[in-house]
């Protein structure tokens, strides 16, 4: 009996030892995993681009004899864009330069000091060359912009009977500043919403006949949307 009891006790101890050892072995067993997923590449804004833009403007024009009889003006603009961006390596800061040329119909009407005549003004085209600095949030770019502006300002004056009419055009220069947001739809295409304030300095228009010499300038806001193709 003694040997049988010993064998039973030894067998029970062996089973108990194996049972308690299994969790430890399972805990110590290596766990094999696949490679970590690759991080999505961030959009890079560097490179050249061309595009189209369009929008509307509103503001005021000066028409100085003296006195200044200028009034409000408003209208639309449409044109093309050419630019270049550089995004600093490892940074979300983007530097750039952009130029555009728009055909515009931004105009206003008023009466001259002699109310027999009208004193109207119009901006026929507008061009800008601007620097840009922005902060990229992957496919979104928030930017400030500013620089040089030039445009053709037109003087149109006529008497109330439309018997005598004067039309003169001069190229004025000035400055512009604003900001916007641009969104990349694909690696090559992006869209933007932009605001610019434009100040075209007064330009002298020489008098002729019944019309006096005057100085005309324009200050207006411009809101545009644009579509750019990157390459």
Structure, explained:
There is one protein chain. The protein is mainly β. Helices cover 12% and strands 61% of the residues. It has one helix at 2-28, and strands at 47-64, 72-87, 93-108, 120-137, 140-158, 165-184, 189-205, 214-230. An eight-stranded antiparallel barrel has the order 1-2-3-4-5-6-7-8. Strand 5 (140-158) and strand 6 form a beta hairpin. Mean pLDDT is 87; it is low at 4-29.
SS-derived structural category: mainly beta
DSSP strand tally: 8
Overall residue-averaged pLDDT value: 87
Following the backbone from N to C, one meets helices and strands in this order, namely HEEEEEEEE
Concise summary:
The protein is mainly beta and 231 residues long. The chain has one helix at 2-28, and strands spanning 47-64, 72-87, 93-108, 120-137, 140-158, 165-184, 189-205, 214-230. It is elongated and about 70 Å long.
């Amino acid at each position: 009996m003694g040997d049988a009891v010993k064998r039973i006790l030894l067998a029970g101890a062996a089973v108990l030892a194996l049972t308690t050892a299994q969790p430890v072995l399972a805990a110590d067993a290596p766990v094999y995993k696949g490679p970590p997923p690759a991080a999505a590449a961030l959009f890079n804004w560097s490179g050249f681009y061309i595009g189209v833009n369009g929008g509307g403007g509103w503001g005021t024009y000066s028409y100085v004899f003296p006195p200044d009889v200028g009034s409000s003006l408003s209208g639309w603009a449409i044109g093309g864009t050419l630019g270049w961006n550089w995004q600093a390596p490892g940074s979300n800061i983007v530097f750039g330069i952009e130029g555009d040329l728009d055909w515009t119909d931004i105009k206003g009407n008023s009466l001259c000091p002699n109310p027999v005549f009208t004193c109207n003004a119009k901006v026929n085209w507008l061009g800008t060359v601007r620097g840009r600095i922005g902060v990229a949030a992957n496919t979104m770019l928030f930017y400030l912009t500013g620089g040089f502006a030039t445009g053709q300002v037109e003087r149109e004056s006529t008497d109330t009977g439309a018997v005598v009419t004067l039309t003169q055009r001069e190229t004025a220069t000035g400055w512009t500043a604003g900001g916007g947001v641009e969104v990349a739809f694909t690696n090559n295409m992006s869209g933007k919403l932009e605001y610019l304030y434009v100040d075209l300095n007064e330009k002298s228009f020489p008098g002729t006949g019944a019309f006096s010499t005057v100085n005309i300038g324009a200050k207006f806001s411009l809101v545009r949307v644009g579509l750019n193709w990157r390459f």
